[in-house]
Specification:
Layout lengths: L2 H9 L5 H7 L3 H9 L14 E6 L7 H16 L4 E6 L7 H10 L4 E5 H4 L18 H8 L2 H12 L3 E3 L4 E10 L14 E4 L3 H9 L3 E4 L5 H6 L5 E5 H6 L8 E4 L4 E9 H6 L2 H35 L3 E4 L2 H9 L3 H9 L1 H11 L4
Parallel strand pairs: 1-2, 1-3, 6-7, 6-8, 9-11
Antiparallel strand pairs: 3-10, 4-10, 5-8, 5-9, 5-10
Helix pairs in contact: 1-3, 4-13, 7-16, 15-16
Length: 356
């Protein structure tokens, strides 16, 4: 059995009936190969009462998927197979918008979604994407594990369709890469055609700094860089690495312009179908993996610059304060405050200090 077939079993890829039968005996070994750890299949496990899907947008190799797979395996073990949640990484169920629609309707039960993209549906979530707001992780977790995160979680629940489960997965601070020039300060962004996620927070930020933001889905990004549809992009180092953007980019500026994280969202009705004891198990094990994954990203961020440098990417450290000062001379922060409202803005500034 080849690796692709093994991965397909564990990520939920559709396979024909004959292949399912042939692979049944080797599911456990396939799971281990796909996730990098030994799967645990309890003796005498009963048929699952709850068969759920868990979708992510990130590449299979990303730490979020590794830790999510571990959580799902533990959930299966602890519940003696009553809860069987299958992982679908790398946009296998569609784009973020597609998967959110499925999660809202119940066609998918769980998903991870970046706080910026969630902001298209739950407005307050987008405030965590305000450019150059967070300057370090102490501020990030003070806000997102604290009052601001609690407010966003309440707003998610008010939609009536989805609920937010546990804390946010870390995806690191976002950095700017380019095939044409190094970005050493705000002036270097002028006219740079930069791919951004299809989210107003990103287009507003880079428009205010004079760049030419071009919204594209992540799965279109490598091709757009390769064919020079865009000059550059911005992503955390982990995604720059797993996406192999170093193959088609030359420069990387450590701008730390936006912190990136992912909520775990669940369809409300699917979540409520779980009895309280199973909700507790699922929530506890997901939160355990969230904490482990945050540690992974912290360690990975320290090693990735060296690794990416060896692959040809040229790094520059920049003064993020210069970018914040440039934004302060525009209407950017005032507009963001008006957009998200006085109450949400006050919660953000409690964690990061005065912005506007």
């Amino acid at each position: 059995m080849d690796k692709r077939s093994r991965d397909a079993v564990q990520t939920g890829d559709a396979v024909d009936t004959k292949r399912r039968t042939l692979l049944k005996a080797s599911v456990a070994s396939g799971f281990a190969a796909a996730t990098g750890f030994a799967a645990i299949w309890p003796q005498g496990a009963r048929a699952a009462e709850f068969n759920y899907k868990f979708a992510t947008a990130l590449d299979v190799a990303h730490p979020l998927n590794k830790r999510a797979a571990e959580a799902l395996a533990r959930i299966r073990e602890i519940t003696s197979g009553r809860v069987d949640i299958k992982l679908f990484p790398a946009n296998q169920l569609g784009s973020d918008a597609d998967t959110l629609s499925q999660t809202r309707s119940g066609a998918a039960e769980f998903m991870t979604l970046g706080h910026g993209n969630l902001g298209n549906y739950v407005k307050s979530s987008g405030i965590a994407s305000v450019g150059f707001a967070f300057t370090n992780y102490e501020q990030v977790w003070r806000a997102m594990d604290g009052a601001l995160g609690a407010k966003i979680r309440q707003d998610v629940a008010r939609t009536g369709r989805i609920v937010a489960i546990g804390g946010l997965w870390d995806n690191g601070f976002r950095q700017v890469t380019s095939s044409t020039r190094q970005v050493n300060g705000p002036a270097d962004l002028k006219g740079l055609k930069l791919r951004v996620p299809p989210n107003p927070a990103y287009t507003s930020l880079f428009s205010a700094l004079g760049a030419g933001p071009t919204p594209l889905n992540y799965n279109e990004l490598y091709s757009a860089l390769q064919t020079r549809v865009v000059d550059g992009q911005e992503n955390p180092l982990a995604l720059i690495n797993t996406g192999k953007f170093y193959e088609v980019q030359k420069f990387c500026s450590l701008t730390n312009h936006i912190w990136d994280g992912f909520w775990t969202l669940a369809n409300r009705d699917a979540w409520n179908r779980l009895p309280p004891d199973l909700q507790k198990i699922v929530g506890t094990e997901l939160e355990r993996s969230v904490r482990d994954q945050r540690t992974d990203i912290a360690a990975l961020s320290k090693s990735l610059q060296t690794d990416l440098s060896s692959k040809g990417l040229q790094f520059a450290s920049v003064d993020s304060g210069a970018f914040r000062s440039a934004l302060a001379k525009t209407s950017f922060y005032t507009e963001m405050k008006e957009k998200y409202g006085e109450d949400n803005w006050a919660l953000l500034e409690q964690a990061v200090g005065k912005l506007a």
